[in-house]
């Protein structure tokens, strides 16, 4: 009777132990997902799935592919804003022209308008930005048709438009607006638009004592570059995550003084924007047009021919200044015919256009700049297919009608016609027609009539319509299919 009682208990214990062992085995058995993860770890350890790491050398850094978004964007807006926006006379180089170059026009301007002993630092409290509305700016920038914006975080005067801990009492939080101008626009851009947010940064400062000391030492010391320049760059990237780092002020000191390759290696390998950030080429004397992400080469660079390396045409609506000027006249501003022409030339030759405006000291985008931006947006609403995400065609400028520029996308070839033909018939020398050729005008409802030219090329009959009936006012885009 005792054995009969023990057996059921033993059986129960065995069953319990079996269940526990089964649970443990199930818990620790490699599931298909876990096995796949293990395989990924093994592949990573073997270096198969590692992202490329860039060494702090130009040979390595120049191999980094440019993130695709930048080439597809084609059009961005530059904004020069700082203490120089207070005198708003001459240009954003006001301080240098006054105290560095000692230009008589600037000296006379100060004598006529400001008290004796007035210093450049006295302008800072007048940089008030009381009308600065980042949401309004974001709306205007979005309406322009641009795909990215680059704001001046610090120009050569050294004033930072963010509360930098490396720029005591010479920044937008400690004096002037008492606001984080960079952070407010970043938030508005990222919350209200689909634009990419970028920052301009000047490596050097005209009159910073540490910079002048390093310069006197012929760049054998690096007090300014380490304690100010690089420190602020790392602070900017880690705080605001810009997708464009637009360097400037590069022409005096070599890249080794700036430790540019070390910074770029960190930016591409480990920064919070390592996968999407793009950079330009101004990282030390002699580097422009040779090293970096995309090339700017020089201000208003517009070569007019196809380039082998991705480039950008940074230019200004005000022909004479990047910052706002109170003395500017209407003739000083590029009109829409000018701007569309520059855009067509730039994109046709493989570049991006970065078009600059200068806000006022109180934070306004003045009407003439706003009008230009909105008109560009209206033109791009109709003709954006010929700009965004396009590639250069085999010909850039037409061989018979010079004011025609080409872009392409897939099987489509776009001819951007800057001047309406007086006869109503457009002759193009570059395209070769075929039996499947079709020609339309972007924004126009019906196909256009065309004929093969007697000596090659193609002749296109433009729509017989009043100017007010045409899809746009400044340039017209023909979309051609089935051309060679």
TrEMBL record:
| Every Alpha-L-fucosidase C-terminal domain range | 396-481
Record has Glycoprotein as a keyword: yes
The EC designation for this entry is 3.2.1.51
Keywords of this protein's UniProt record, alphabetized? Glycoprotein, Glycosidase, Hydrolase, Signal
* SMART domains for this protein: Alpha_L_fucos
PROSITE patterns attached to this UniProt entry: ALPHA_L_FUCOSIDASE (PS00385)
Catalytic activity reads: a neolactoside IV(2)-alpha-Fuc-nLc4Cer(d18:1(4E)) + H2O = a neolactoside nLc4Cer(d18:1(4E)) + L-fucose; a neolactoside IV(2)-alpha-Fuc-nLc4Cer(d18:0) + H2O = a neolactoside nLc4Cer(d18:0) + L-fucose
SUPFAM superfamilies for the chain: (Trans)glycosidases
Pfam families (UniProt xref): Alpha_L_fucos, Fucosidase_C
Q: Which residues form the Glycoside hydrolase family 29 N-terminal domain?
A: 47-385
Q: Where is this site: May be important for catalysis?
A: 314
Entry GO terms, CC: lysosome
GO MF annotations in UniProt: alpha-L-fucosidase activity
What's a BP term from Gene Ontology annotated to this protein? fucose metabolic process
Q: Which family does it belong to?
A: Belongs to the glycosyl hydrolase 29 family.
- Complexes and interactors: Homotetramer.
Task of the protein: Alpha-L-fucosidase is responsible for hydrolyzing the alpha-1,6-linked fucose joined to the reducing-end N-acetylglucosamine of the carbohydrate moieties of glycoproteins.
This protein's name: alpha-L-fucosidase
The organism of origin for this protein: Branchiostoma belcheri (Amphioxus)
């Amino acid at each position: 009777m005792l054995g009969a009682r023990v057996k059921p208990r033993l059986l129960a214990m065995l069953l319990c132990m079996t269940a526990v062992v089964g649970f443990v085995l199930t818990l620790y058995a490699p599931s298909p997902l876990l096995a796949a993860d293990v395989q990924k770890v093994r592949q990573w350890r073997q270096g198969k799935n590692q992202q490329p790491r860039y060494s702090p050398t130009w040979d390595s850094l120049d191999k980094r592919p440019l993130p695709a978004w930048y080439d597809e964007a084609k059009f961005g807006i530059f904004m020069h804003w700082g203490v120089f926006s207070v005198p708003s006379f001459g240009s954003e180089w006001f301080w240098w022209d006054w105290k560095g170059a000692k230009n008589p026009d600037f000296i006379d301007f100060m004598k006529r308008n400001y008290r004796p002993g007035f210093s450049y630092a006295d302008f800072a409290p007048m940089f008030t930005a009381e009308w600065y509305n980042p949401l309004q700016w974001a709306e205007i920038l979005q309406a322009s048709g641009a795909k990215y914006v680059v704001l001046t975080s610090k120009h050569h005067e050294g004033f930072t438009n963010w509360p930098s801990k490396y720029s005591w009492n010479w920044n937008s939080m400690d004096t002037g607006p008492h606001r984080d101008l960079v952070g407010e626009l970043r938030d508005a851009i990222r919350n209200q638009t689909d634009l990419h947010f970028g920052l301009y940064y000047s490596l050097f400062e005209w009159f910073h004592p540490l910079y002048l000391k390093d310069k006197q030492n012929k760049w054998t010391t690096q007090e300014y570059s380490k304690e100010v320049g690089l420190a602020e760059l790392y602070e900017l990237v880690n705080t605001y995550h810009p997708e464009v780092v637009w360097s400037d002020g590069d022409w005096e000191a070599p890249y080794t003084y700036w430790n540019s390759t070390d910074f770029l290696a960190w930016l591409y390998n480990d920064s919070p924007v390592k996968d999407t950030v793009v950079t330009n080429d101004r990282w030390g004397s002699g580097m422009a047009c040779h090293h970096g992400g995309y090339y700017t080469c020089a201000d208003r660079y517009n070569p007019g021919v196809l380039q082998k390396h991705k480039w950008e045409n940074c230019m200004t609506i005000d022909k004479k200044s990047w910052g706002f000027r109170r003395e500017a006249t209407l003739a000083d501003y590029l009109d829409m015919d000018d701007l569309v022409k520059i855009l067509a030339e730039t994109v046709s030759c493989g570049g991006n256009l970065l078009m600059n405006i200068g806000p006022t000291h109180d934070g306004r985008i003045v009407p003439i700049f706003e009008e230009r931006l909105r008109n560009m947006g209206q033109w791009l609403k109709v003709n954006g297919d010929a700009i965004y995400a396009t590639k250069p065609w085999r010909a850039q400028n037409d061989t018979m009608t010079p004011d025609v520029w080409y872009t392409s996308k897939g099987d489509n070839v776009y001819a951007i016609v800057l001047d309406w033909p007086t006869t109503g018939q457009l002759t193009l020398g570059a395209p070769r027609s075929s039996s499947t050729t079709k020609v339309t005008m972007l924004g126009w409802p019906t196909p256009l009539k065309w004929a093969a030219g007697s000596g090659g090329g193609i002749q296109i009959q433009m729509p017989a319509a009043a100017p007010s009936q045409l899809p746009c006012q400044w340039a017209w885009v023909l979309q051609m299919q089935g051309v060679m």
